[in-house]
Design brief:
seven-stranded mixed beta sheet, 10 helices, binds S-adenosylmethionine, alpha/beta, 7 strands
Amino acid sequence: MIEAIPANNATDLKSCCANLYESDLARLLLGDSFHPGGLALTQRLGELLNLQPGQRVLDVAAGQGTSAIFLAQHFGCEVVGIDFSAESVRIATGRAAEAGLSGLTRFEQGDAESLDYAPGSFDAIICECAFCTFPDKTAAAGGFARLLKPGGRVGLSDLTRTGPLPPELAGLLAWIACIADARPVAEYVAYLEEARLAVSQIEPHNAALAELVRNIRTRLLGAELLLKLKKLELPPGIDFEQAKCLAHHATGAVQTGKLGYTVVVGTKRST
Ligand SMILES: C[S@@+](CC[C@H](N)C(=O)[O-])C[C@H]1O[C@@H](n2cnc3c(N)ncnc32)[C@H](O)[C@@H]1O
């Protein structure tokens, strides 16, 4: 496995990622759900985790709260969403209040690599389209295992790669777009297994990624127009030409099967 990157670079990466996903640009390009498959795939993840009313669920890297709010509404569970971005936490909290779900959801700022909750305090943990962006994946997986009750379940949905990616899909923008550090499915399984989370299900959802990338390429045209009209601001550090180039090369990687999207479910071992 690739070693964790130095701490100061890691903090820059997380801040940059948080800046992108709290922005209007993210909402414009991705819609409400910031992962392939949208809420249909979140529902599938909830079913695989066998979520039940009254269970406590942690949504790690919850973004603007779309999945957490949906899980509370659809499965009746109590959901805590954490995200690195204070602004996303603010937006998610407001959206939950609008949906009348403040009693079942709570959003807090936090770092997925150092989750600060009591051991064994959650029945289930989800992490959608974000594990691949964490510089220290071992720390994040270890935190999932610590916070789950024995027998509790974790569900990752994430970008996967099948081999080396072209150089155009490296670099900061590709990293925060969940591409540059996407891992082969076997590596995600290894991170969970090393944290004593026994992997029971692996489900490919590559078509959902292909659809998302197609939609992003179309929506980039609209974003470009809004930028020219000065009706959209780019988040700090984002270069629009680079984003278009990334979307072009990501399309190629998805079409040739180098990039995909997969759900992985694991259960905390009791011993
Ligand atoms: C692609 S978005 C996914 C958001 C949400 N899970 C969804 O599917 O709609 C990635 C999210 O990860 C968050 N993030 C990145 N690094 C993080 C970290 N170390 N701890 C917590 N959140 C993090 C970003 O702020 C962003 O909201």
